Amino acid sequence: MAQHQHVTHPIVLRRLEVKEVVDLNPRMRRVTLTGHELAGFERDGLDLPALVSTGFDDHVKLVLAEGGDVESALPVQRAQSIDWPEAPHRRMRDYTPSRWDPVARELDLDFVRHGDGPAATWAERAQVGDALHIAGPKASVVLPEGIDWVLLAGDETAIPSVVRFLAERPTESPVQVVLEVRHPEAVQELDLRERDTVRWSVIGDR
Q1: Are strands 90-95 and 60-65 parallel, antiparallel or unpaired?
Q2: Which keywords does this chain's UniProt record carry (predicted)?
């Protein structure tokens, strides 16, 4: 059986800005980020590479802080990685970009609007021009050749990776999508092809 492979990337801390905020539906908010640090740049004498994100399930780490003092919660950049000194007020969350456009320097992050966690709270308050620090992705998955079909399954938090897979199509094989959501308004239109299938399961609040 063919196995997928991982391609690793240098881990870089980047300061980005909000370019656009759009509600895809009552349950999902898309924040488009931009900034010169998505390309290669220099910081503290280090030449840091452009962001690389080639996998549909890549994830970046959002660096947030309880109380809002993000600067004192930031990690220390090294040549190929970052160090994380102790910072009790630091809050980090992993998110999969639903779109990465290196030409336009735009990175889309989709947030499920489900509560008052640090990332959800930031997304609810996000406005054009706001700053957000991200790190990663540190690796991307490369699918093997010769796949007969693909199964993508998950809950609402998996929707961004499904959206990206269907948009970029790392394989021409048919795709079966199974998604479990809590509310009917979380259902959204997907970019399906003729042989693809999708099943939405609405489970309600449990």
Answers
A1: antiparallel
A2: Oxidoreductase
Alpha-carbon distances, residue 151 vs 41, 155, 162, 198, 199 (angstroms): 38, 14, 10, 10, 11
Containing H/E element for 180? Answer: strand 175-181
pTM: 0.93
CATH of 5-140, one of 2.40.30.10, 1.10.8.60, 3.30.428.10, 3.20.20.150: 2.40.30.10
d(CA 31, CA 146): 35
Query: Within a 10 A sphere around the Cβ of 55, how many other Cβ atoms?
Result: 23
User: pLDDT for 44-68, tens place per residue?
Assistant: 999 999 999 999 999 999 999 998 8
